[in-house]
Amino acid sequence: MTTTAELPAPPGADVPTRCRHARGHITDSSFLGDRYATAASRRIFCDVCRVQRWLDVEAALALTQGEMGMIPAAAAADIAAAARVDRIDLDTVREETQRSGHSLIGLLRALQQACPGESGEYIHFGATTQDIQDTGQVLEMRDAMDELDTALRHILTLLCDIAEEHAETVALGRTHARPALPMSFGLKVAAWADEMCRNAERLAEARPRLLVAQLFGGAGTMAGFGGRGQELLERFAERCGLYVPNLGWHVARDRIVEYTCLFGTVAGTAARIADEIRTLSRPEFGEVEEAWRYGKVGSSTMPHKRNPERCEQVVVMAKLAAGQVPLALAGMAGDHERDSRALRVEWACLPDVTHYTLAACQILTEILQGLTVHVPRLRANVQIAADQVASERLMFALAEFLGKQTAHERVYALSQTAYQERRPMKELLAEEPDLARLLDEKTVEEIFEPAQYLGDSVALTRRGVASVRDWLDAPRAGQVSG
Prior knowledge:
- By secondary structure, the chain is mainly alpha-helical.
- Helix content is 60%, strand content 4%.
- The chain has 19 helices and 4 strands.
- The protein starts with 38 loop residues before the first helix and ends in a 9-residue tail after the last helix.
């Protein structure tokens, strides 16, 4: 029997001589990470940049307290000048964090050492760790929401352009993966834009709720601020570019849940669009197609493959984003006035949902920018299903003579026979004398012409696009900015 000690060394066992093992998460992969994160999301959640955000918050606190006379103004200026990562020994911070087992104390001690004289004694005056870390996290959320807003506006513009271009392009509407009724392709795209615009509206509406400062002290009482806590909070929030909450929210994590759900919803909408494009690009449909360039490889063994990789990756991102929502929800049940069990889960799921959602939007933008719509194939597919998609119109035409329910029964029988016998329904209709005599030849021809039964597709498309463009053109609601 082979023991563990006798097992051969795994492949790459000598890697430590060549690698610091700095990249362990898929979003950080130098090979694959660009499809799981974006340059913006990496910048926002960079480890060193997070430390700088905490320093920025400490500086904002000190400067505000200095203005209010709560600490010496000179000490506040010294703290703000020292609160830069290039003046902090990050190796010492890392070692002290490991030694103390505390997530902030190492940074506070390093910041104190970087301050001249006795100025460091006034760092973190009256605040608690979560005040600093929550405010820093909200600043990350603000930057991420700004990035998402920009991405959604670009996507909405692209969708509106495509919808307008194809407002009158005849396409096959499908329900339950089967032919349903004719429609315009523009209506389908306008519906995508309509849904994504609601996400953009939600994003804007959520800002005052989500982007709030945290500065309430150890148990949310502001006791360490000498009776001036509320004024301090207002000034501190203004300096940070954040809104002012009514009460402390150390253990009330609904804001984080809303953020996570909002980002997950955006990723879900992106996936619905991308997956529809993936489906319609199948050779059986051939109605749309991702952009392709020579040199892009779909398979290591089948040279002919042109796979819809981008569309598939958007769906992957949506699944991963959705997976962060239950983690955020699980953090809502915290104890008393403080509980790190929620906070430390957020440090993982909040960056991840941001990475995945921004990546989904970036990839969707690439898809829409290079999307090819095969209009002749759209029309051909409608014609192939012309018999089936004419059933409703035929039913209503006969209903004028037979009543709606009776007409439904008769057309049902015709359509099912046509399907079973693989015969044109128009031909079967002619073989029913009592029905054929009710409709003249011209009327029958019109009934079986899909382009004549688009309903309000064109008007609805233009209405939807106009609504989205109005939202895009409207002045943005007032935002607190840092």
